[in-house]
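Posting this for the archive.
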Amino acid sequence: MRGCILALFSGLVLLGSLASGQETKPPQTQNSSYETLSNQFFDFLKQGKSSEAVDFLFETNPALKKMTDDATQLKTQFASVETLMGSYVSHTKLVETTVGGMFVYQHFFVAYERQPISVRIEYYKPGSKWLCYSLQFDGKLTDKVRSLSDERISIEAK
């Protein structure tokens, strides 16, 4: 599980229903923001519905919807997070970078009972609607924090 990172990239926007055919998400409107998309994604994770969370973001982008093997792999990996790390506890946005009002990068610290993970979401707005451009996560967040912290240690020769 550790170190699994999957990045998915895409192009255009198209809405559709989830594979189950049930409407489990609010439709994306002209005024929907990327924040609304992220909030809904994490609402699904809070409910233990990681597969639906991935489907929700993929539904915003026809190129991602066509990547069924990648989507299946990402859903399987997200499902294993709860099995290995316990239930979802909370999430905190670490960084958000916006470029030209059309591209957004968000990096989240996501706490599970036994271990935190890192979730990164990128959004792109080529027209009037935001679409998920990339979704990735990894379980090596604590390794990165440790490494960056250790780099700040000042060693003085005496």
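The domain at 34-151 is CATH 3.10.450.50 (Nuclear Transport Factor 2; Chain: A,). The first helix runs from residue 34 to 46.
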